[in-house]
Batch of 2 targets.
Target 1
Amino acid sequence: EAGVTQFPSHSVIEKGQTVTLRCDPISGHDNLYWYRRVMGKEIKFLLHFVKESKQDESGMPNNRFLAERTGGTYSTLKVQPAELEDSGVYFCASSQERSVEQYFGPGTRLTVT
Amino acid sequence: RKEVEQDPGPFNVPEGATVAFNCTYSNSASQSFFWYRQDCRKEPKLLMSVYSSGNEDGRFTAQLNRASQYISLLIRDSKLSDSATYLCVALDGGYQKVTFGIGTKLQVIP
């Protein structure tokens, strides 16, 4: 069974540019989560989808971040415009309905210069 | 105060040693707890869930003390392959929001 996949694995952009990260959860997993790890800090929760609905987006840093999950399958996380402090590793995770076990993707390493 | 506190280490132990990691959490509403393992530049992977009754999986034993808001992980007979960062994770029961600790780095030395 395929795991959680994320694209791209690395992205280097300049401040002010736009970047879109993609996450494909494990097939059949209704729950999809985005997290971010800034160097030297804990992995931080960004938001949680249940199917196509945002269940909790309390961790989103500001309105430069927009997450979507149209159709309840894959999700995208857009950062526009990117700032230097947005650099970090963005992880996506998914879980089955009513399961607490989350499976993580390999992450996207974002560098804003 | 951080919601989930861990000693970042590193813990350097010889092969075959027993090592214990501790973690405290501040949110009394946290319902479920886990230990994840993260290898360098890789994604976190679930190691084991943590229950009040304690649970054991081979050389690994996890324990939860709700009264003290304290979680532990014990690794017996350490192997070189156990070298990794161990993340303590708390899950709140409402929206399933996950809170991670900073992680404890373990280096097992030959």
Target 2
Amino acid sequence: DVKVTQSSRYLVKRTGEKVFLECVQDMDHENMFWYRQDPGLGLRLIYFSYDVKMKEKGDIPEGYSVSREKKERFSLILESASTNQTSMYLCASMGSESAEDTQYFGPGTRLTVL
Amino acid sequence: AQSVTQLGSHVSVSEGALVLLRCNYSSSVPPYLFWYVQYPNQGLQLLLKYTSAATLVKGINGFEAEFKKSETSFHLTKPSAHMSDAAEYFCAVSDRQAGTALIFGKGTTLSVSS
């Protein structure tokens, strides 16, 4: 079974702090994704990566950056956290570049910015 | 741009009743379509997906969905609801030509009463 883990289930940070959200997958997948989930808005794509050191902006990249130094790990960085970044963050991975392939999700990190 | 519309942000049914969750997509080219389920405090899990092999797709936990090109729909059904089906359900679409990113609907919360 594919396993996608996220470093924290719950996180509380202060406005202006630099925040790192870590995601690790154990299936040697090429593609990894970061989504943000908000009530009534569904999931929105922040960034994705199709290879080590490669990244592409999604629909809402402002205020975020990402890092992929190793194939299994994809980090989401909030350079200076703001209250409007309080949300659930979900990481996903996918094995191929085929659009019909399945994305596998981690359990999510619920981030609160005070 | 592709989009997905889920009609009804909240659906309530009685145990044993039919479950019908609606999803319509907008695309000039038949896309790949997915239904994911999210149980409380968990990540998303794939229920089923349409990849053009068959218009009626069977998934896990007794769910199925039918792709109807003429109606641009991919509604999710289950003949008899269980209490354990209470969750949030997301319809998603991927574009064969636009890469691997998924576009999600806003989600439908299913409540099941005894």
